[in-house]
Amino acid sequence: xxxxxxxxxxxxxxxxxxxxxxxxxxxxxxxxxxxxxxxxxxxxxxxxxxxxxxxxxxxxxxxxxxxxxxxxxxxxxxxxxxxxxxxxxxxxxxxxxxxxxxxxxxxxxxxxxxxxxxxxxxxxxxxxxxxxxxxxxxxxxxxxxxxxxxxxxxxxxxxxxxxxxxxxxxxxxxxxxxxxxxxxxxxxxxxxxxxxxxxxxxxxxxxxxxxxxx
Length: 214
Description:
Layout: H1 8-15, H2 18-29, H3 35-46, E1 52-57, H4 63-69, E2 73-80, H5 83-96, E3 102-106, H6 109-112, E4 119-124, H7 134-143, E5 145-154, H8 158-171, H9 184-193, E6 197-203, E7 207-213
Helix pairs in contact: 2-5, 3-4
């Protein structure tokens, strides 16, 4: 939920509303976890990356961070551009008594990057699809990761592109916010150029998750 565009924060607040944040947080509290979040969590644990510190970029209500905190992560920073999602994540931090181990930060990641700490693990769950200039974002994400980088993105398939085109066309009536299908090979190249190797890739019908390690 980040973008280098100067008005992206306003677009994100209109797109990622308090109503959506509340609905997502309530679903998470009832045990419903999105498929990409679940795959990222399980793969991170399988690869032995669920220890140390976490930087969760575009972390929304914090579901992935809370899941990993329950599985060995000791410190988590959740960064998101949406004020509503940041507020929801903060509520969950308080409810879970995680104030000592979880920090919630609001803002565009590229604008915040210089102020955010490096972490053992950096995650971006369903984030790159919201961002037109994915290369600088992935570059900065990799620069902040010391051990692993894990992310999910829409698969480059005709039916995914068609569905996203329809969603963007409908959304255009009310908002300038758009989503994107970026080239997987190019995203992998950006991350590997930063010194990482692909350790695991998994797919759903619509989404791919990839975990890279140094």
